[in-house]
Design brief:
There is one protein chain. Helix 1 crosses helix 8, helix 17 crosses helix 18 and helix 18 packs antiparallel against helix 19. The chain has 5 domains: about 120 residues, CBS-domain (Roll), CATH 3.10.580.10; about 130 residues, CBS-domain; about 140 residues, Beta-Lactamase (2-Layer Sandwich); about 160 residues, Alpha-Beta Plaits, CATH 3.30.70; about 250 residues, EAL domain (TIM Barrel). About 35% of the residues are buried. Helices cover about 45% and strands about 25% of the residues. Strand 12 and strand 13 form a beta hairpin. Bound molecules: ligand LFPHGCPZ. The site of ligand LFPHGCPZ has 22 residues, from strand 26, helix 22 and strand 30. This is Diguanylate cyclase/phosphodiesterase with PAS/PAC sensor(S).
Amino acid sequence: MSLALTIPIPEPFTDASLGELPAVPVRRTIEQIISPRIFSCQPETSVVEAARLMREAACGSLLVIEDTRAVGIWTETDALRLNFADPATFELSVRDVMSWPVKTIPVDTTFNDAAVLFKRHGVRHYLVVDDQGGYRGILSQSDIVLNQGAEFFLKLKHLDTILDPERRPLMTSADTPLHEAISLMREQHVEALLVCYPDSDYGILTQRDVVRLLAEKTSHLPVGAVASHPIISVPKQTSLYYARKLLAEKHIRHLGVLDRGELAGVISFSDILTSIEHEYVNELQYALKERDEALQISRQNLRMADKVFESTLEGIMITDANGVIETVNPAFSRITGYRKSEVVGRNARILSSGKQPPEFYRHLWISLRENGFWQGELWNRCKNGTLFHEYLTITGIKDETGHYSHFAGIFTDITQRKIAEERLHFLANHDPLTGLPNRTLFMERLLLATQRAQREGSKIGLMFIDLDRFKYINDTMGHAAGDKLLTEIAERLKSTLRECDTVARLGGDEFTVILENISDVQHVAKIAKKLVSKLNGIVKIEQQEVFVTASIGIAIFPEDGEAPETLLMNADTAMYRAKERGKNNFQFFTSDMNTSTMERMRLENSLHAALSRSELLLHYQPKLKLDTGELFGYEALIRWNHPQMGMVSPAQFIPIAEDSSLIVPIGDWVLHTACAQARRWLDRGDLLGRMAVNISHRQLKLANLVDSVHSALQHSGLPAECLELEITESMAMDTTQETLDTLVRLREMGVHLTIDDFGTGYSSLSYLRKLPIDGLKIDRSFVAGVVQEPGDAAITRAIISLAASLGLAVTAEGIEEASQLAFLREQGCPFGQGYFYCRPMDVARLDDWLAARRRELAAH
Ligand SMILES: Nc1nc2c(ncn2[C@@H]2O[C@H](COP(=O)(O)O[C@H]3[C@@H](O)[C@H](n4cnc5c(=O)[nH]c(N)nc54)O[C@@H]3COP(=O)(O)O)[C@@H](O)[C@H]2O)c(=O)[nH]1
């Protein structure tokens, strides 16, 4: 049975009631917890008086002041040292029993440091002083411990965890004389003594009771008469938190601890404090250890950062908040050429290149001030004035107040990378030969130009330029010469046009020009005229002179198309029209050009069926000896009798047949038909010379012409010598080794080879000598002018004489007038044909013509 006054355990603590975990406060100072009131007495104050003062102030110590100077301190523990058996004790003054010197501690000492000092000096009180030596208050160890946020710990721990079962409380019987009980406490260094009453009840005598008894000068009574009785007790499961609360509420220092109703021990306020202290010291040690480790890591980091700063290849510059340089690393000096001493203290704008507008820097600073970060590329200037391209990252560094106090700029010199990138970009978008934009860049620019023009309501002129006869030049003079010619053309184009105009090379000999902001289409015509004239003329390549002309097609945005592709296609179509119209000129796109494209497609479709539907036929035009008028052969000329369109000119459908591969079966058919007819006329005695058949470019290149000719001769039975093949001058100039071989084999078969339209194709005479040919046909354009045009007469004369000197048969075509015939006869031209004698006719009409002619001859 317990005779102690039992206090029930309060509500149990749940996890939720534990509240937030306390942080370990390592930076707080003791100034925040000391009480500014200092209780003091003088050295001469009697101990009895001092005890009364202490009781009134309810404090545990008095500062002993002499002449405003603290000469000692008198505490409850000091009171215990008095001998209560001696009546003279009550006459003692504080000076006789105080502790001195007084230990002081500066007011700005941190909690941590104060806790360490308490442990190190083994004291329970410090006098707190400021830096002038003024007294600011008394700090007890309890103040530190109670302000360490120990609630969490107190709530978790129960009394039985701090009750040492081995350490029995110091106990004495109630009849023990008071001075003996006090001596016992002093000797055993305890704060309290358990007093045992005869009925197994317990009371308690504490240091504070001793101070009270001193103040009352009580010494002769037995301890049972003055002890606090009964002792207030709580079960051992009570938390320290509640125990501490109870001690504070009851203004007591000790509690009995009950185990199953029996007094198992006594715990004091200082036991709780010691427990907290213990825990706190553990935490403190842990915090100190962590701090030391952090310090160690931070020192190591600093060393590493220092090493990185010194050895990194990236330039680093640290500035203050206004951009004034505070330090730079060696890489900075290597990149910029500035030594550290030359830039520290100067503004970072010392590096400014002037290539970025003020707006750029304004945005940079806004970003730095708002986000503490900026990243990007910019041009800066080295000490020697050269520019360098850098990739820069700037990061703001904040001070304790949260403001950016410094900026760290880290940059890499990317000049070389930029040059390489630009080179790559250039190569991807430009023609390596001429340096002009290529198709990709051209299409991009055209798209942008159309978008701009759309927005601004302006016009664009798009020119498609194609060199005339480039292939011939390339093939005859070689690719290197062709390249030189293209480079020269590119230069001429650039020098004729404005900087802002785009000149591009799409490939081969195709160039394009974009003219923006066109106010008047006539202006485009003027430029086109200028270009035609600039490109027309002689270009000197490797000691040789090449005569060049160009054809230009023009499309206007938005009239001739809004999409870049349509515009380009229409400019291309217009360029073809310029070629058709004799080359060396320019043509604007017109919608009928597209119509003719449609027509062309329609013709191509029906041409496929023309052969099988027997819509093709041959007309023949006789060739004559000019001096005697004797018939010397025929030229077979194809006709297409279209069911709806009537007679379609070969000039119209042969190019279409050439573009598709229809020319091969058609050409084959012409050869077979002409040879068969020639054989018939030969058998009848109406073929003295040869049957001439026109061979197209594609036929010569693609088809197995030799086989076709051989087959036509075999089928018809016509001797090879009676067959003449006409190839145009441009074809003759465009021969490759393969086509040359074909011509040689035909010649070896006995077939005659003639160059048609001679004089129009700028033949190289030396080249002419190498060709296996038998004759030349003077183009009818020269024949037409022989009477009126001295130039045409001169050319005709020259061709006749050239043919004679090379041993070639020469035929004049397109003789329409007697005067022309007379001229040709006079010049010794042996053969001719033309409307003057007879138009091309079908077999029936030609047979009539032959019969009539025979009759006429017979009549003479
Ligand atoms: N590959 C092939 N080409 C052929 C074939 N048949 C003809 N052609 C080529 O078509 C072009 C046009 O020919 P065509 O309309 O038949 O004109 C020829 C004659 O009619 C015309 N000619 C003849 N004499 C005169 C004249 O006195 N005046 C005048 N204005 N024209 C005349 O000349 C054309 C013949 O020219 P050419 O071939 O250069 O001797 C034409 O280029 C034909 O070559 C074919 O089967 N295959």
